Amino acid sequence: MSDTHHTVQTEHGVDAPRDAPDADSIALELDGVTKRYGTETAVEDVSLAVREGELFTLLGPSGCGKTTTLRLLAGLEGPTAGTVSIAGSEVADAARASPPNERDVGLVFQDFALFPHLTVAENVAYGIPDASDAERDERVSSLLELVDLAGFEERDPSELSGGQQQRVALARALAPEPDVLLLDEPFSSLDVRLRVEMREELKRILSAAGVTAVSVTHDQEEALSISDRVGVMHDGHLEQVGAPEAVFENPESRFVASFLGQAGFLSGHIESDTVETAVGEFPREQLTGSTEQYVDALVDVLVRPDDVALSPADSEMDADGVVVRRQYTGPSFVYHVELDNGDRVRCQHNHTESYDVGEPVDLALVADHALAWYPSI
Amino acid sequence: MSDDTFDLESLTDIATGLRPGTGEKPPLALLAVAALVALAVLAPIGWLVARAFEVEMARALALLTSSSTLTVLANSVALVAVVTAASTALGVPLAVATARTDLPGRRLWTVALALPLVVPSYLGAFAYVAAFGPNGTLADLLAPLGVESLPSIYGFFGAALVLTLYVYPYVFLGTRAALLTMDASLVEAARTLGDSSLTAFRRVTLPRILPGITAGALLVALYALSDFGTPTIMHVDVFTRVIYVEYSYSRDTAALLSVQLLLVTAVVLLLESRVSGASGSGYASGQVRSASRLELGWLTAPVLLACTAVVSLALVVPLGVFTHWLLGANALGGYGSGFSWTYAANSVYAAALTAGVAVLAALPVGYLSGRYDSRLGRLAERATYAGYAVPGIVIALALVYVGVRYARGLYQTLPLLVFAYVVRFLPQAVGTTRSSVVQVDRRLVEAAKTLGDSSLAAFRRVTLPLILHGVSAGAALVFLTTMKELPATLLLQPANFRTLVTYIWTARESGFYGRVAVPALCLLAVSALSMLVILARDRHTD
Description:
A: alpha+beta; CATH 2.40.50.140; 2 domains; six-stranded mixed β-sheet; five-stranded antiparallel β-sheet; 20 strands; elongated; B: MetI-like fold; MetI-like fold; 24 helices; 0% strand
């Protein structure tokens, strides 16, 4: 799969103004950061600026380097190349990385890492040993209030549910008032129902605390629903940064396109006014930012399940393709359709419209928005 | 008594948090057999206590409060305190160095530093007396240089030194296990909350590994209290030595001193349960990750030097001394005088019998406590651990009474000796059996039953094959430990049944050190084999 960032979207400027924060409002910056373990490259040449007060999410499959990036920010690892800056001052380069205790970062661990030998209150107060007793009690109780755990001060972490443990971990990380809060797969240890609930809670707590936050996750729904901006990582590279809807609608690379949503690709040929595909033609203007210069190019057009519609074919002979798989998701079916030319697309239908696997079908493009596309490979 | 903290097995148990599940009731027959084993193990101690109560009250009081008895008590307590403190001071830093830093050759050092544990301390004491004693090897070497006398190795200092060298691995291994199972993200959490690595060690790591350290220190204290060989060789009047001396003259005194020793042992156990009870639950958060290692930097050389020093003192010295004797004896016309390979054969025979009996007795107890959550099962398991807590000399003495009084026919026969061995080393077999039973997924047994097996058939066809490895490891450990056992062997040896151990002891008493070389090297080899069994088992349980 090609990683080509063709120039179209940048010209198009979908996210340009939001992607270049003012120098003043930058809470955190990575510049050309690379991390290698022996011959293994975990993170390569990642540059990124996180704005004051935003919730930024690094999204990617496991092994893409997102957790390593988080650990580089926390000071638990040092970069092989590049620099890390927090609140305007450089905290790490290839030669020297300041240890975590000398950075104002808080980290919420994937498995929470609550100290089992300390009570809830002692856990929360762990990072503020220099505060006076009164200050400490005050801070602990206001934080526990914030995370909705007032009255749990004397409990042991082992007596708490997963969601409660996470709230304690959050309060503990927030107690020293860090410049940046880092969250490592914050919801992965929770069961599915709790996950959705805690997303809202996290959003509320973070905005109440007014803290800049960077989270990492492999769950696109989570990333898209809670983040102010997301960065999609793949194979150690940062592939695209932007607001969730911008990234979802205009994936800059095939990887981003296929990682977000259930992507399918239609191969097409750009003509002067239209684009020819196996399921018919559509106006050329519907391709995001296509100009005259691309006429006659062979391209792959991104279609998501709601961009196409099926209809029963009149005969097997002139059908566009056949249903090769169907997934029932409750409210709807997602059909995998293989076209005669080998393209595979997915198509979402109301659960009342049913097609069988092997059934010949016709396909129509019903998208009313601009379509992202990639040079054919 | 606290959790079963008497052996390496239970250290691993604490570390991995393996506990039997709840639910099913154990079969009655199994309970009965396990209870029987537990009673048999406890009986000798009961007899001994009963024997002590036969002594007239006034005489008993006079004996127990006499100044010589009080000196013995003071010596014993001091030896235990010094050895435990020294072992902790040695074991904890070495464990941190091998488990948490970038020390070169960590794996090799770990094995080398654990190895002294399996060498009986009396061999070490023996080697030290021979090497550093008034007429020892070192004195001979230094005499031409004009060194007239060496500081005496005999006495309290020598005993404390030698004991520490051979028991600190309990603390080393206990600490190491705790360090390795500790969730590394806890330390990372402390670091992100503002702690330096040293502060994080004090505030997070130390409290987490304290139960491991305490468990190890308790084993050290118990060993130091119950060890017979080292204080005897070093001429320190502690309970074990005095009991051995008294038993030929005054059995009343020996019995009373034994009961007193048991009380001191109980105090140690009580202390331990207080400490570990305060350290909280075994709650572990999340999975175990490998910690980022600390960089030693300039400390690398001193730490390497310390490791080398400890290994040299504990392993190289005895090995060197015995090899030196072997070569010297050969030069003088052979080591053969007085030594016969039938002694080795006798040792093997008695040890093999013991291993067989111990496995048979351990199977019901280990299975019961590993498979079922039953009060009686736990009680039976605890009871079998008495053999670890009760000093060998006391068990031996108790059986001497039994033999003399109730079973003349058994006194100084092989069955009684084997019984003593079984009482002493049953915990090893129970421990390994239990932990392998715990590791058997109970759904496998359920699967066997749904496929038509009865409980017994499921045990035979599924559980037994799966625990066989653990059970045989237990048997091997019992076998190897029995080969090295000293006090029971001395007190209960059948007439004309010399073993490697009794031969070494008599040769030592008669001063013919050169004759000891071959049997002593045999026992060192046996020790090394024990370590191999333990290591192989560790790898298996991983």
